[in-house]
Design a protein that fits this description.
single chain, globular, alpha/beta, 320 residues, Helicase, Ruva Protein, domain 3, Rossmann fold, 2 domains
Length: 320
């Protein structure tokens, strides 16, 4: 009875978050759910889409709904690692150096247009995203908890972009696309939008301690051994097909399981279903694979990888 109450309480808290974010980020409940799944699983989120569809709005709405410290970093070609991590400043009075933290020392960091900066600056996020800490001037400094990076990027075909290296992509739990809103939703936005930004009026609906408890609760969600095998069958399919040059790593498999547990909790369950595993396959795996030579699918490499993952999953037997 206690466990059931705990799951119900978790579902209620998550639903409050979804409803609050949905008041300004409208008509995209599925995207909000995936973003919250990343947060509950302790992972990071990459949002790839054309400019102007609400990528930044989603990150800001989520941060305000959680009442957490939020920083936005606008990535440009001249951005330096020190602009992200921080730098030591000389105090002329004492003659000592004092560290001035950069924007990375926040609970939620929006790395806006991350693929518009150089690979050297992109790599400054690697340790932060994988270990929750940064090493600066031979000293390691812990980042606040919880810590979430929401990075946005324009399609790689856009002018002036630097593709994220595979090692950086692998640090993102999921990659999602927002897409254009439905016509009726967009019409309502045009009719209701005044001079101000509605997102600035959002209030926090859960506290930081409650969020930390939700993250800890993810580990208690049950996953039947048959579903572990189902998940591994999907992962192995990416490694054995000739249509992919690189399949999903063991780190990717671990992230897949953690995300499935988080998604189940978000849905109000203490156990994982096959549908959870299948639902997360594309957003969680497509950015962790590389297309094989001669794989010709029309459209961007992102769409090609997503279509291939979806095809592979459709061929795998679902456990009863």
């Amino acid at each position: 009875m206690e466990a059931s109450h705990s799951v119900d309480a978790a579902h209620g808290a998550v639903q409050r978050l979804i409803d609050n974010v949905a008041t300004v980020f409208r008509g995209k409940t599925d995207v909000v759910e995936l973003a919250l799944t990343s947060l509950l699983a302790g992972g990071h989120l990459l949002v790839e889409d054309v400019p102007g569809v609400g990528k930044t709005l989603l990150a800001k709405a989520l941060a305000l709904s959680l009442g957490l410290q939020f920083q936005r970093i606008q990535f440009t070609s001249d951005l330096l690692p020190a602009d992200i991590l921080g730098v030591s400043i000389l105090d002329k009075t004492s003659g000592d150096f004092h560290f001035r933290p950069g924007p990375i020392f926040s609970h939620i960091v929006l790395a806006d247009e991350i693929n518009r900066t150089t690979p050297r600056t992109q790599s400054a996020l690697l340790e932060a995203m994988s270990d929750g800490r940064v090493s600066i001037e031979q000293e390691t400094r812990a980042l606040p908890s919880p810590f979430l990076v929401i990075a946005t990027q324009n399609p790689l075909e856009s002018h002036g972009t630097y593709p994220l290296p595979d090692s950086q992509l692998d640090r993102f739990l999921m990659r999602v696309s927002v897409g254009y809103p439905a016509r009726q939703i967009e019409r309502e936005i045009l009719l209701e939008r005044g001079l101000g930004e509605p997102v600035d009026t959002l209030q926090a609906v859960i506290a930081r301690d409650e969020l930390l408890r939700l993250q800890a609760q993810v580990a208690t969600v049950r996953c039947d051994p048959s579903l572990i095998d189902y998940l591994l069958n999907i992962v192995e399919a990416t490694r054995t097909t000739a249509r992919l040059a690189v399949g999903v790593s063991t780190r990717g498999a671990l992230a897949y399981l953690r995300a499935a547990r988080a998604y189940a909790l978000l849905q109000g369950r203490a156990y994982v279903l096959p549908d959870d595993v299948r639902r997360l396959a594309v957003p969680l795996l497509a950015h962790r694979v590389s297309l094989g030579t001669g794989e010709a699918i029309s459209g961007s490499s992102r769409l090609a990888a997503e279509a291939l993952i979806d095809e592979l999953v459709s061929r795998i037997e679902v456990p009863v």
